[in-house]
Design brief:
Blueprint: H1 2-7, E1 12-16, H2 19-28, E2 32-36, H3 42-53, E3 58-61, H4 76-101, E4 107-112, H5 125-144, E5 150-155, H6 164-167, H7 173-176, H8 185-198, E6 202-203, H9 207-218, H10 221-233
Parallel strand pairs: 1-2, 3-4, 4-5, 5-6
Length: 234
């Protein structure tokens, strides 16, 4: 998403905890300003919140990770970090964004969730729960911001080829799902940017995932839960 904004000549502050990658990005795109911050820490969140408070037109909350496996077998420390990043940091930065944007009557907030936010996800239980929070928060903020000139959109992609697969220990998913189920990160980013500009509450990239999210809404919860569990076992 940073590359797409930079290619369009939009001045962009890129945030990450790995300074070497940010530096390479800044060297490739003169419009990109690097901000090294670890959003799992109070200091990192404070630094980014302070930058947002200075005034920006668009905030994209894209940081997050998942943990694959049976809940009771997972490292509780890692799960704490997952909740802190996916929920706590996103909430704080969303607050900073709206607190800066609403008084001036303009701005865009794009929070990245997932299609798993619409249903249970055995095997990715904590990740799905954090994303359910992100989607619920985003829809609420969308309505709160209605009429203020601020657009709040929640991006809910499906399977996307990114580093998330390796970080979440879910590399096996690449062989479990057909090629047509996977989306390109650039496609997902373009969809999110387009939909936040249009003021949509939810952005679900791809015809397949739009259909799935609609189907979940009309499927009895017990059946959706059971089907999700069966999919994880395949």
């Amino acid at each position: 998403m940073v590359q797409q904004l930079a290619n369009a000549g939009v001045p962009t502050v890129a945030v990450a905890r790995r300074g070497d990658r940010l530096q390479l990005l800044a060297e490739s795109y003169p419009s990109v300003s690097p901000l090294v911050a670890d959003l799992e820490t109070d200091a990192g969140v404070d630094a980014v919140a302070a930058r947002v408070a200075d005034g920006v037109d668009l905030v994209v909350n894209n940081a997050g990770f998942g943990t694959s496996g049976k809940f009771y077998e997972l490292d509780p420390g890692r799960l704490d970090r997952e909740v802190a990043l996916n929920v706590r940091a996103l909430t704080r930065l969303s607050h900073a964004a709206l607190a800066a944007m609403a008084p001036v009557g303009r701005g865009y907030l794009l929070n990245v969730s997932s299609v798993v936010s619409f249903q249970p996800a055995p095997g990715l239980a904590v990740y799905a729960a954090t994303k359910a929070y992100v989607t619920s928060l985003g829809e609420s903020l969308h309505e709160e911001a209605r009429g203020t000139g601020v657009h709040v959109t929640t991006l809910c992609p499906g399977l996307t080829r990114t580093e998330f697969i390796s970080v979440s220990n879910s590399s096996g998913y690449q062989d479990s799902y057909p090629e047509f189920a996977w989306m390109d990160a650039d496609q997902v980013a373009a969809c999110g940017l387009r939909d936040v500009a249009r003021g949509k509450a939810l952005s679900v990239p791809g015809v397949l995932y739009k259909a799935m999210s609609t189907a979940v809404g009309v499927t009895p919860r017990g059946l959706a839960r059971r089907l999700s569990g069966l999919v994880q076992r395949t």
